[in-house]
Amino acid sequence: MKGVFTKEEWFGNIRGDVLAGIVVALALIPEAIAFSIIAGVDPMVGLYASFCIAVVISFVGGRPGMISAATGAMALLMVTLVADHGLQYLFAATVLTGILQIFAGVFKLAKYMKFIPRSVMIGFVNALAILIFMAQIDHFVGESWIMYALVALTLAIIYLLPLLTKAVPSTLVAIIVVTAIVIFMNIGVRTVGDMGALTQTLPMFLIPDIPLTFETLQIIFPYAVALTVVGLLESLLTASIVDDATDTDSDKNMETRGQGIANVVTGFFGGMAGCAMIGQSIINVKSGGRGRLSTLVAGIFLMFLIVILGGVVVQIPMAALAGVMIMVSISTFDWSSLKTMHIVPKTDVAVMVVTVAVVVYTHDLSQGVLAGVVLSALFFAAKISKVKVMSLLVNDGNKRIYYIRGQIFFASVTEFLEEFKFSEDVEEVELDFSAAHLWDDSAAGAIDKIEMKFKQNNTKIHFKGLNIESKDLMNKIGGLSNNGH
Amino acid sequence: MKKIMVAIDGSEHAERALQKAISITASPEESSIDLVYVVDGDKSKSDVLHYGDSDTARYKREKMLEKNADIARQKGIQVSIEILHGDPAETLISFANSKSYDLVLVGSRGRNKLQTMLLGSVSHKLVKYIDAPVMVVK
After folding, report:
1. Model pTM?
2. Which of A53, A337, A412, B6 might form a disulfide with A385, Cβ 3.0–4.6 angstroms?
C-alpha cells in the first residue's frame, strides 16, 4: 500500500485541508439528503454513506484531495431495488458493489476506461445533471407559489451572494436564510423531516438482513454490476479532473480498489453505495484542499454536524434543498459541450445525445454508457470500413492493376468485393495492398474469394505490397501461401 | 532587459494583449515575455471531459501557448510559457509578484457596465494587487 500513510499526503497542507474539509462537509449535507430522497430511503442512509465513504477513502483511496460520498449517479440506480425489495437488499447490493470494485482494482481494470469515448463521458455528466434536475421537479408537484418563491430565493442567494463576499459558502447561507424564514414565519411547507427519519447517532455495524440464497444474489447482482460500472466511471473521471486541477498524478488502480473497500464498509454500516463526486471535489480543490486530510475532515465534520444539529437539519424546507440541487445540476452539466456542438464531428454529437436520451429514458446511467459505447463503435466501424479501390489498365489492356486503400475486415469486405470486375477480359490482374491492411478471417476469406473468381475466369492474379501483419494473417488462414507469391 | 508578463486564456482578447506586448517592445533582443495561463477547477472539468485525461489536456494547453509564443518569437523576442493551477486572479497576482516584471498585460473581455458592476473582473483585481504596472488591453 504505497503512499497511503506518507506524511506529505496527510499533513502537507494541514490548514488548507481542514478549512476545505469543513466547507465540503457543509456542501455535502444537502446533497447526501437529496440523494437519499432520490433513492427512496431515509436521509440517514445517504448521510451515513457520505460519512463512511469519505472517511474510508481518505485512507485507502488513490487520489488525495478527491471527495467521495453518496452520489446522484448511484442513487438513481437504486430506486427500483429499494422500491421492490427494501433497504436491506440495498445494503447487500452496496457490499457486493464494493467487492466487485475491489476485484476491478486488483485486476487493474482502470485502464479500460479508455474504451469509453469522450462524447459518452460528456453525455454521462449531462444526463446526470438532467436527472438531478428532473428529480427536483417532483418536489413542486401540488405545491403553492410559496414553494416557487422559496426556491427562487435560494437560487438568488446562491448565485448573487458570491458577488458581495466569498468568505462564506453561499449555499450554506441560502439554506440558513430560507430555513430561518420558514421557521420564524411559521410557513407550513414540507421539510427534510417529512421525507424520512433522521437519527442523531453514529452509524452502527450491521449485517444486511437478507436470506443468503442464490435468489438474493440474482436480485442484487444486476444492480451491483450497474453500480460498480457507474461508480468507477464517475470516480476515475473525477480523479482525472483532480489530477488536472492540482497538476499531480494519482494511482487509478488504487483508487478503484479504494472505492470498493469504501463501499463494502458503507454497506455494513447502513449506508448506500457511493462514488467520487466531481462537484464536491472541485469545491474542495478550490477551497484549498489537496491532501487526504481534507477528505477525512469532510467526513468527520459532516457526522459531527448531524449529531449536533440533526434537530435543525430536519427543519430545512424541501424548497431550500431543491434550490441547492438545481444549482448542483446546473454546475454538473457540461455547458461547453453545447458551445462546441457545431464544431465537433456530427457522429460525436449523436453519441452524446443518444447517451443522454437513453439515460433520461431509463434513469440508468450504465445503460446510457452502454448505448453510447455501442453507437460509437458502430460509427467507428462505419467510418473505417470505407475501402477505396482504384484501378487502371496497362499492357495494352491485357493487365489491370487494382490499388486498394483502407482497412479490410468483416465490416468492409462486402463493399470491397463489389469493386472488382471479375468477368473482364484481361490476361492478368494485380492487387496492390500497399495502402491497405487485412485484419481478420473475413478479410482472408475475401482475398480467397477474389483469387477463386479471377481463376474461374482464367485470369492470372498477383498480390503486391501486403504488409507483414496482413501476410501473416494470410499465411495462417488464407490460401494465399499456396499461390506461391 | 525588459521583463513582460502576458496573461493568456486562449481568447482573442488575450491574443490582442500579446500583440500589444510585441508592439511596445522597443528592441526585441532586450525584452523577454512570459506567457502565463491559469487552469481553475471548472476548466479542469471541461478539459478532462473533452480531451480524455489530464496529460492530453496539458498537451493541448501547451500547444495553444506555444502557438502564441511563436508569434512573439518570430519578432526575435525571448518567450517562455508558464501553466499554473488555481483561482485565476489570485494565482496570476502571486505569480506576477513573485517575479519582478516591468510590465504585466492582460486582455479585457469587454463586458458592459452592468456586467462589470455585478461580476467585477479578473483584470480589475490584477490592476489593484499586482506590484508592477498593469496594462489592460481592450
Report:
1. 0.85
2. A412
A286 touching chain B per CB within 8 A? yes
Q: What is the DSSP letter of A123?
A: H
A272 CB-near residues (< 8 Å, 6+ apart): A35, A36, A39, A41, A45, A46, A49, A70, A74, A75, A78, A90, A91, A94, A266
Report how far apart, in Å, the C-alpha atoms of A230 and of each of A76, A97, A180, A483 are. 10, 10, 37, 52
A483 at B interface, C-beta within 8 A: no
**Neighbouring C-alpha atoms within 13 Å toward the C-beta of A223:** 28
CB contact set of A214 (below 8 Å; sequence gap of 6+) = none
Q: Alpha helices of A406-481 — where are they, by DSSP H?
A: 413-417, 441-456, 468-477
Contact A286 B44 (CB under 8 A): no
Task: Tell me which of B44, B47, B94 to substitute to probe the interface with A (most A C-beta atoms closer than 10 Å).
Answer: B44
Task: Give chain B positions within 8 Å (CB) of A122.
Answer: 49-50
Helix intervals (H) in A195-251: 214-246
For chain A, give every domain's residue range: 7-378, 388-483
User: In the beta sheet, which residues pair with residue B134?
Assistant: B104
A388-483, which class in CATH?
Answer: alpha beta
DSSP string, A12-81: TTHHHHHHHHHHHHHHHHHHHHHHHHHHTS-HHHHHHHHHHHHHHHHHH-SSTT--EEE-HHHHHHHHHH
- Cα B131–chain centre separation: 16
B110 at A interface, C-beta within 8 A: no
For residue A197, what is the DSSP state?
A: -
pLDDT at A216 over 70: yes
According to the model, what pLDDT value does residue A484 have? 43
Query: Of the candidates A286, A334, A336, which has its C-beta nearest B41's C-beta?
Result: A286
Residues of chain A above pLDDT 90, percent: 64
Q: What pLDDT was estimated at residue A478?
A: 60
Per-residue model confidence (pLDDT) at position A242 = 95
**B50 near A CB under 8 A:** yes
Side chain identity at residue A222, one-letter code: P
Q: Which residue of A has its CA nearest to B121?
A: A163
- Strand, coil or helix: A460: strand
ipTM: 0.85
**B49 close to A (CB below 8 A):** yes
Give the three-state DSSP class for A235: helix
List, for chain B, all residue ranges whose pLDDT scores fall below the cut of 50. Answer: none
For residue B101, the enclosing domain spans 2-137
CATH number at residue B68: 3.40.50.620
- A9-23, A25-39, A94-108, A188-202: least confident range: A188-202
Which chain A residues have a beta carbon less than 8 Å from that of B44? Answer: 241-242, 244-245, 282
Tell me the sheet residues that pair with A389: A404
Are the beta carbons of A261 and A60 closer than 8 angstroms?
yes
A84 touches chain B (CB under 8 A): no
Average pLDDT rounded to a whole number, residues A376-385: 89
- Asked if B54 and A243 come within 8 Å (Cβ–Cβ), the reply is yes
Select from A323, A278, A299 the least CA-distant residue to A124.
A278
Rounded to 5°, the CA angle B116-B87-A251 comes to 150
